[in-house]
Design a protein that fits this description.
heterodimer; A: mainly alpha; 4 helices; 2 strands; B: mainly alpha; 0% strand; disordered C terminus
Chain lengths: 120, 234
């Protein structure tokens, strides 16, 4: 993983601006009904796909940076997989995100206590 | 009727505020773990004020994504707010534009759910009810808890030793599950995750997340279009 070169404040301001524009448009009279239904449906599907992609890449892909600066991704399996899958199961069954997160942290902590090393 | 509906709003929002506070605390811890200062974490919570995309942003920053990619992903992730805003627009049409513009900043998933249910119970918009739901029950707990989490994160020398490093991926996966409302959203999730991993391994994780998500959503969308209507499964 590498640090982004963009200052955090610039990222915050840009994210705030784009989020606000999405929220304010229809409330101030931009006609949302003009947006094609297929676009609305596609955008509805993008949100869970992005979040799942982020989670999967975070636990399954390890990036090693060579001395030349090249980034070499590799597949990894670790206790993080179990922790995240447990969280998914708890959220799916109990509909409680907090409970899922607590379960994930406990599993990871126990795994590390047993000698596992962070693979993230 | 307004009093009983507001009482119901208070009860509903009290339970939600506890969850929002706990989640805000976890966001603060996660923000600290990727190197954000308490001020930066608080700025994001107050200015962006969108939990899922804030968590996602931590991943983008840790993964080295550029500003353009972060803006595109944030727009895609928060596109559902257009629907919320369009749904509330008829209820708030007679409010002054500056008030609607201010209300828009606080329009989160939770504020939308609470206020729309309240408006429907009343049969009209209720401005104090909206402010209570959006600011009292969501904005304040989220922001106070973010600051508390970011400060607490500084007191933990090695977050990975106590398993806090899995908070970010677990939160992403958990929020994704909460967005699964039908088989199409499930398909987007199930196709998006492995696609992102595969593209990340072939190319780069920064590209893999965006491409995987777009491919996952597109595949789920295509499957939905190809599915016969007569199946009755939604």
């Amino acid at each position: 993983m590498t640090e982004t070169a963009t200052p955090t404040l610039a990222i915050v301001v840009a994210m705030a601006a784009v989020t606000y524009l999405l929220r304010v448009g229809p409330l101030l009279g931009t006609h949302a009904e003009r947006i094609p239904r297929v676009a609305i449906e596609y955008l509805r599907l993008v949100a869970p796909a992005i979040l799942a992609a982020l989670a999967a890449v975070n636990v399954a892909v390890l990036v090693r940076t060579e001395s030349t600066g090249a980034r070499i991704p590799s597949f990894q399996i670790g206790i993080e997989w179990l922790a995240v899958l447990l969280c998914v199961a708890v959220v799916a069954v109990r509909r409680s995100l907090i409970l899922g997160l607590v379960a994930a942290v406990l599993v990871a902590a126990l795994g590390r206590l047993a000698g596992g090393t962070p693979g993230l | 009727m307004p009093i009983s509906s507001r009482r119901r709003l208070l009860v509903d929002s009290a339970g939600l505020a506890v969850g929002v506070g706990a989640f805000g605390f976890i966001y603060g811890l996660s923000a600290h773990s990727v190197g954000l200062s308490p001020i930066e974490a608080a700025a994001m919570s107050s200015l962006v004020f969108a939990g899922a995309s804030q968590f996602a942003a931590l991943g983008y920053m840790a993964g080295g994504l550029g500003l353009g990619s972060i803006v595109i992903l944030t727009a895609l992730l928060n596109a559902r707010h257009i629907v919320y805003s369009a749904t509330l627009a008829p209820w708030l049409a007679d409010r002054q534009p500056w008030k609607r513009a201010l209300m828009a900043h606080f329009l989160t998933d939770e504020a939308f759910a609470l206020s729309l249910a309240h408006f429907r119970r009343l049969g009209r918009a209720d401005e104090p009810g909206y402010w209570w739901a959006a600011v009292g029950a969501i904005f304040l707990p989220w922001n106070l808890a973010t600051i508390a989490g970011a400060l607490a994160g500084g007191a933990i020398p090695d977050p990975s030793r106590v398993g806090l490093d899995v908070l970010f991926p677990a939160a992403m996966a958990g929020i994704a599950v909460t967005l699964v409302v039908d088989w199409r959203t499930l398909g987007a999730l199930l196709i998006g995750a492995p696609s992102a991993v595969a593209i990340s391994l072939i190319w780069d994780p920064a590209i893999g997340v965006i491409a995987g998500a777009l491919v996952g959503a597109l595949a789920a969308f295509g499957l939905a279009a190809a599915r016969p209507r007569a199946s009755g499964v939604r």
